[in-house]
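Q: Could you predict the 3D structure of Crossover junction endodeoxyribonuclease RuvC?
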Amino acid sequence: MRTLIYKKRRLNFSFMSYRILGVDPGSRLTGWAVLDLPSFGRTFNLISCGLIDAKNKEFPSNLGKIYEELREVMKEYSPGIMSLESVFSGVNPASLIKLSQARGVICLLSSVFNIKLKEYSPRFVKKSIAGYGDANKQQMKEALNIICASKSSNIKAFLNDNMDSNISDALAIAVCCATDMSNFIYS
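A: Sure. Here are the predicted structure tokens for Crossover junction endodeoxyribonuclease RuvC:
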């Protein structure tokens, strides 16, 4: 069962509005966040966010858990856009393979639900949020606090130092997508 961290009940969706699902993929922990953007340049609202914990599952059951729980999120919130981090190559090739498998499951869901998929490199997300491509997780949380204080009051109240890093990364990816809508409008 996915861990639901926050859920807003009000669903006010109008023409030209966007619902964005940000996903921080991981083979063990996958964070997700749903934002509503009434129109580009307007205040966005956090609708829900949570964590899919598959660390007690072995391969390939962990992928099945990610698929099932994220599918439920997509059914419940009907996002129009999914955004996630692109693959990056770290030191450990085994980790890269596991991350790619989890991303594959998530990308499959965007195809099954016919949702636009937007990928951002971790460096692009960090630069968009913190203004610095090598920002650490604490700097990202602080930058999200500043952005959300000006854009949305309900996100500011929700963010704190105890927020799970996978969820704050998913929120950062969703906010990055919300502030980069020209890619969707003109593509």
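Q: Anything worth pointing out?
A: The mean pLDDT is 83.
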